[in-house]
Amino acid sequence: MDGLDEPGPIRGKELLDQGLSWTASTAGQRWHILFTVRPGLELNDSVRRIMPDLGEDETALLIDRLGGNGSAVGSQPSMVRHVLRRPLFAIIAAGLQRDRSPLPHSPMAFLQALVTRALRDAEEAKEERAERLLQKLATECASTGGLAAAADVGSPGDVHALLGTRLVVRVGERHLAFALPVLEQYFTGQALLAGGVPADVTQNVELLDRWRYGLAMAVASAGWEAARTVIEPLLRAQPGIAAWVVHEAVPRAVPESEGPWPDMPASLVSQRLQATLEAWQQGLGPAGDLIFLYTRWSGPVTVDARLKGNKLGLHILRRHADHTPELAIPVSHRWAEPHGMRPLAASARPVAADYAAWPWQETLGTVASRLHMLCERRDFDLADCDAYTRERLWLASTGLLRRASRRYAPLQADEAHQALRQSLYSAGRLPVRSSYGHQFSGQQVELLRIDEQLGGGRWTDDSGMLHYPYAVPDQEDGPHVHWVWDTYSPSQLRLRTEQVLSAAMEIYTALVDTWFPHLKQVLGLASAGPATLVADLYAAPPQDSDSYEPPLMRLSLRPSTGSSVSVHLVPSEDDLYAPAPPLSPGNEPARSPWARPSTPVISEPEIFDDAPAIGYAYAWLHEDLHRLHLTSHGPGRTNSGLP
Fold it and tell me: Fewer Cβ within 10 Å of end Cβ, the chain: N or C?
């Protein structure tokens, strides 16, 4: 099936889900379905296949067949050779060689060369008019999903001028489209640079989904000031999409090499990095204030940097009051560790200095690595989430009383409280951070809150006992008990799973609302709501041997009128692979194009830890941030269970 993206992102995902259901079913296992899709449709890594680039020999052969000089490819700089591995750019290169024109050095320059060749025979006035019409057509196509009504673009003469560029084709009798999607994206970017980002686009997530590659093209081709006019309004309205756009627009992994790099004084390099880092932190909202928390610093910072060729040397330093240590540090000491100014972060590596927007990408990388660390350490405190509080109280109390993991007998709250106060105040002052065993680690503000909660008695029963918040094992003895899941009957396993997933959804929602409210519309799980999280759970029958047969769970999201969790025991493992029942036609609620795909994922349930709901919630959040390139890596050990 060609053009899976053409019906739009929501319908495209539905068609993909139908195809996956066919191939997953017993009757459909003999099916192989190939979808082709343009960049932009969110796909699961398990089904996505990228068309490989041409090899150098294939590139040379293609250029030769088009009348160029393929043997000259090997003598080009590595950057040009890399660009030419894409067939479109190899075709453009052959045309340039026939005209004895030099080859460009970047994808954007190749596209500019293609456009210049398409318009070269027009008079200057007509060329300017054609470019304006191409930009207008691009914005219409971006807003409507690839096609634009000819009448909305201009007069019959305007349509004739567009078709004359050979960059535009007629679709049917009344519509126009670009000959290649990349041309639509290029001219959308040029329109944005000429007229700015329309306010109705920044406020509409669905429109932003269609415009995002055009936005990336604009940032990739812009100078410093022009890039700011695109990124800053987008960052204020939708910081998550701004992060995605910058990541797509500017390469992050680049070699250190010779090139016509900008000659920028250290003061200007530092100022641009300072401005972009502060913009990311402000755009992210509350979470932005914690970027350097794991270094025990949450105050303002100063960036001190220099660029030598395309190699960036960077220090991020604490800022105290109005003191800004950046260029006050003697140059001879700036790249060491000045006394009393130990950097919070430091690096020296090549950057994409030939892109004017490289400071945005560099500081985005800094922010992403810090958010990754905060997610790994689970450092986003929640003061008003009951599900989070119950797990954290249990973790702190078991650590204080040195209770072994996965021992769920009730605890005497007074004993835990006494141990906490002794730990807190024995040194005469409160610690900034405390750890109990290997399970609990908390900041000072949370330690004080736990002190109050244990003393207040809200979370204890009438006997002053603190209970584990989820269903506990109900069959710990017997010949079949070899693994932790063997200690649960099927009904108790289902109950515990439902309780953990319900708590995880509550914690995830609180994390987003408290720390990432500006990202809510584009975080995959948050933007999928309202939805029901459906868990199909299979537990193998008890075995007399100690063979490893853990439970398996299929998690999927189903659109619904309200958010909920539904857990079902299924009789066989085959039931996990059966296609989900389709939604009744006309009853599908509207979903954000940034929502998670609904393709079910099958994995072992991560429900047996002492704090399983927090683990799931952080894994979901971490994965959602990673999709926007706001964490440097995806979630670690905990399996998120969602696509």
Answer: N
